[in-house]
Specification:
Length: 430
Amino acid sequence: MNDLEEAVVEIGGIAAGGAGVGRLPDGCAVFVHRTAPGDLARVAVVERKRRWARAELRSLLRPSPDRRQAPCPHYDRCGGCTIEHIDYTAQLRIKANIVAEALRRIGGLDVPQPEVTPSPHEFRYRNRVSFTLLRLGAGRVVAGFHELNRPGRIVDITDACLLPEPAIARAWGALRGAWGHEAHRLPSGRQLRLTLRSAAAGEVTLLVDGGYSPGRPEELLSSVPALAAIWHRPAGAPDWTLLAGSAAVTEQWADEEVALSGIAFLQVNRAAAAALEDHVFALARDAIGPGARVVDAYCGVGLHARRLAREGAAVVGIELDPSAVNEARRAAPPGAEFLLGRVEELLPAALPADLVILNPPRRGLHAAVPEALVARPPQRLIYVSCDPATLARDLARLGPTFRLRGVRCFDLFPQTTHVETVAELECVTS
């Protein structure tokens, strides 16, 4: 460590991965985790590339006024959160900057800084959390999140973690106490991915990804009262198997009752998601009239489609997850139709439409999707994105057929740089 290059750096901003960004004395951009805009810091360079470097914080010579003491006891090493050491109001500014910069730099869009709607809960907001469990031998088990700057290591995380909803925190603490010596009540295997999901009533589902034999799920279920079900997908297997408990858990999501199977998910922050979904619904209602045709692409369990169909629209939902499509069809009101398959394959036949809603995964749209939308453009587009970079790329692909009407962000992931963005576009071609 003593041989590492050290330098004094002023931090000017936060990158999308959560590291502070500054300049080394030679002008090279440097990324330093656990720093804040306004910090003057002594850092040690641990990696050098031609155009950028990565460094670790050694000491603060002048702390930023946006700094705070991170409240989570695991924060020093844990990579689950990246900006918990920054005041929450400043976190919102950072997210607005990340979105605006991506739209300008990647999308070529000159946009003002977007508004970011804060999460109603800064902590204890996640209704779904995934942990990595490693069996290290000699009776040792570690289960938690990847270590910051050393992702090959796992930081053991207890129920004191401030991310999960209270029901998940309680279930995690009880599960850790109940899985037994070398976690023998869980499926076998050196490494497992454990996902806990909570419903509004407090029921928790456990999904175990990886491993081989099922372990002793009935013993776990009886030892952890909050657990409603345990599902398992063995290593290399394509499908999930219910090991114990209920095949579906009823979730109350805003004004909708949703029967969630073991692997169907909703947004991780139920309170912040409600604000986002209300915003999307308001934009959609403003964009269509009675009898309008709507395509809800990447629709999940069809929450937007259900609401718009009740408003009199004819809605086609498209979703790849069979369990989500089954739930969407089960609760479909008149006027809502749900198709199982890839959006890039099914969208062309679903057009034309008055409105298309897009809510793709983090990788954004398949190249065939903007091609189909440009070929047969709807009057309005609503794009819900969880990644500013892929959103900016896709908006560039949609121009000049569509004009950006507005952008609004929603903080579904406090203590991280992740942010949800809703972009509204209108067709500008005749």
